[in-house]
Amino acid sequence: MRNLKLLRTLEFRDIQAPGKPQCFSLRGEQGTVLIGSEHGLVEVDAVTREVKNEIPLVAEGFLPEDGSGCIVGIQDLLDHESVCVATASGDVILCNLSTHQLECVGSVASGISVMSWSPDQELVLLATGQQTLIMMTKDFEPIMEQQIHQDDFGESKYSFV
């Protein structure tokens, strides 16, 4: 960890955007920050601190109007030229920030707790509300689904080493 070095800190207190920040993602090539709230996505220029894009997910029905919605993950996808958004209600959405087109690429009935992408953006892992892990390819093809808590594990089961 000794090779980590703080380059700079930014404070975004005066941004005129609806909602409270729930999660964020950096868009390194564009020099912007994506901020997710209970209303949708906001893209903010890190230097000028101006809002470059605003994607309302409430208007499209992906988040509830009462403000109880939650974005649990955001990831900028260079291959898709889009941003992947996961909501607590279980939707996985691709947002094209240049055209503002939204596409629901999958839905999990029990909801999503966490979304995490591999560093090379080839795999995505979702933790669901039913305590399962779903691994998918970058094209959202399921690879595996596994319970987080195994029932067939313990003293009564054989272990092979």
Automatic annotation (TrEMBL):
Top-level lineage group: Eukaryota
Coiled-coil region: none
A Pfam family recorded for this sequence: Beta-prop_ELP1_1st
GO-annotated cellular components: elongator holoenzyme complex
Residue ranges of domain ELP1 first N-terminal beta-propeller in the record: 1-157
PANTHER family for the chain: ELONGATOR COMPLEX PROTEIN 1 (PTHR12747:SF0)
Protein's recorded name: IkappaB kinase complex-associated protein
Protein's organism: Sus scrofa
